[in-house]
Amino acid sequence: MTRYYSIHIYDRQANTEYTAMIPDDQYILKSLEEQGIKLPFSCRNGACTTCAVRRLEGKIYHPEAMGLSLQLEEEGYNLLCVGYPRSNLVVETQDEDEVYELQFGRYFGKGKVLFGIPLDED
Ligand code: FES
C-alpha cells in the first residue's frame, strides 16, 4: 500500500519554497515534476549530482545513488532523481556543483587519483 509523505523544499537558486505530498513508491523528482514543481536535474539516474539536496529533516532511501558517496549521504546529502521518501522531509537545493566539488574536488588537480575515482575511502 502506498504511503504519502510531505516534502518542503527550499530552492536556493530560485529563492522559492514548495510544499507537496509525495508517494513512497515513486522517485521524488518525478513526483514533484508531475505536480508542476521544477528543480535542477540532468542525468536522472543517480550519477551526476545535479539534483542533490541537503536533507534538513527526514529520511530518503536511494539504493541507486551511485554518484553520491556514503560519506556525503551521512552528511545529509541525497539525490532526488533516484530517491524515495521514507518520512516527511525538509530539504534545500545545493549551490551549483556543491556536491560534485565536495566529492571530487579534493582529488582532481591534486594528484591523488591513481586508479579511478575514489568514492568512499579516507
Ligand atoms: S539528475 Fe543526475 S544524479 Fe540526479
Plain-language structure description:
- The strands form two sheets. A five-stranded mixed sheet has the order 2-1-7-3-5. It has a two-stranded antiparallel ribbon with strand order 4-6.
- With 122 residues, it is an alpha+beta fold.
- The model has no long low-confidence stretch (mean pLDDT 89).
- Strand 1 (4-11) and strand 2 (16-23) form a beta hairpin.
- It is globular, with a radius of gyration of 15 Å.
- The chain has a single domain (4-105), classed as Beta-grasp domain (Ubiquitin-like (UB roll)).
- The chain has helices spanning 28-34, 70-74, 98-105, and strands at 4-11, 16-23, 52-57, 60-61, 77-79, 84-85, 89-93.
- The protein starts with a strand and ends in a 17-residue tail after the last helix.
- The protein is built from three helices and seven strands; from the N terminus they run E-E-H-E-E-H-E-E-E-H.
- The structure holds FE2/S2 (inorganic) cluster (FES).
- Keywords: 2Fe-2S, Electron transport, Iron, Iron-sulfur, Metal-binding, Transport.
- InterPro entries: 2Fe-2S_ferredoxin-like_sf (IPR036010), 2Fe-2S_ferredoxin-type (IPR001041), 2Fe2S_fd_BS (IPR006058), Beta-grasp_dom_sf (IPR012675), Fd_pln (IPR010241).
- Belongs to the 2Fe2S plant-type ferredoxin family.
- One of its GO terms (biological process) is electron transport chain.
- It comes from Dactylococcopsis salina (strain PCC 8305).
